[in-house]
Amino acid sequence: MSVEREGPDPGAPVVVDVVMPARNEATTVAANVAAAIGCRHVRRVIVVDDGSTDDTARIAQQAGAQVVGRPGSTGSKAHAMDAGVRATDATHILFVDADCTGLTSAHLDAICEPVLDGRAEMSLGAFDYGWLNWLVLVLPPLSGERIIPRWVWDRIPVTKHAGYTIETRINEVIAEGRLRTHAHTMRGVSHRTKRVKFGVVDGMRRTARMYVDLFSMLKPVGDIRWRTYWWYLRGLTITGR
């Protein structure tokens, strides 16, 4: 994949909207909507209710979000994110996961600023894993907390919108386009793991399946070149280890 640098009209105002995919996240969605609304760079918050069977949609709306529903969905993070993007005309999308814990408006401000200041095309925040933070920050990022120009999303073919592998597809556009990424640790931020959501055994099974799917995206099984990671590292700036 070869991607040229591009963007909106330089004279056009930058508009940032939050897109928050959510499926059965009634426990944490309100706090994360509040954090997103409080981000000083954000115009509005769009929560995509991805076929939830709990009160996620109602709670998100009460917290101040615009809710976009995907009734009947069996869950696809990629398609939920796309539904959120299609619901806005923003020039930049700040993706935020609904299952974060400890997330604040200040964390999201810090994610936005490298892109809005022109220091990077993508900026992301990684969960706080303590002494492992240095390693997490140099690995291909899977974090759901990131801001990108809308055109980066539009460069991902709809045929590649597949569940939780979507973050890797975003990485691919950024890396193959020789674009810059800023990454830092969000101190004190974690998330509700699959083990918490689905129980220890089922949660571990789902986690293992996720990593199998991610590794299968690489050649020769998949279509992502190994050198893509090299281009990602060349454009990576890290702060706040």
Explain this structure to me?
The structure is a single chain. This protein is α/β, with parallel strands linked by helices and 241 residues long. 37% of the residues lie in helices and 19% in strands. It has helices at 29-38, 56-62, 77-86, 105-116, 133-138, 150-154, 166-176, 194-198, 200-215, 227-234, and strands spanning 16-22, 42-49, 66-69, 92-95, 100-101, 122-126, 146-149, 181-185, 190-191, 236-239. The chain has an 8-stranded mixed beta sheet, sandwiched between helices. Strands 5-9 form a two-stranded antiparallel ribbon. The longest helix is centred in the C-terminal third of the chain and has 16 residues, at 200-215. It is globular. 40% of the residues are buried. Mean pLDDT is 89; it is low at 1-5.
